[in-house]
Amino acid sequence: MTDCIFCKIINGDFGTEFVYENEYAVVFKDINPKAEIHLLVVPRVHVESLNELDDEKILGKLMMTVKEVTKKEGIKSYRTVINTGKEAGQEVFHLHIHILAGKGVI
Ligand code: AMP
Ligand code: ZN
Question: What is the pLDDT of residues 42-51, one digit of tens each?
């Protein structure tokens, strides 16, 4: 999607460094971290939110990506969050999983 910031990041438009990537997803640091470690796992395909998701495979691939990147980064303990909808705090309408770890995780 042309006006989606995460699609642009995936496309390399901002030169964002990927902490990890695979066939299905990219992982990069949140620009406004809410904890010592704050990563975003973002599917390459544009899906607005969990409400619009119709392919269960995507969620499985995303969760496996969480496992892969945390293992690679040596993050043993972490919290995962998916915000769905504006009232729940979703700001970017391209599905993503937050990984929060280290100091400041609540
Ligand atoms: P959410 O509120 O669940 O939609 O989360 C969106 C997250 O994307 C927020 O934590 C933002 O800080 C983060 N974010 C927005 N723009 C960028 C960007 N250009 N690079 C990295 N993270 C971003
Ligand atoms: Zn998008």
Answer: 999 999 999 9
**Number of domains making up the chain:** 1
Nearest atom, ligand 1, residue 29 CA: 21
Mutate-to-test residue for ligand 1 from 92, 97, 100, highest number of ligand atoms within 8 A of CB:
92
Q: Does the pLDDT of residue 85 top 80, yes or no? A: yes
- How far is CA 94 from each of CA 6, 37, 41, 58, 65, rounded to the nearest angstrom? 7, 21, 11, 13, 17
Nearest to 72 by CA among 3, 13, 18, 14: 18
> Do the domain assignments include residue 106?
no
Give 41's strand partners.
27, 97
Domain membership of residue 64 as a residue range: 5-101
- pTM for this predicted structure: 0.97
What whole-number distance in Å separates Cα of residue 46 and Cα of residue 51?
13
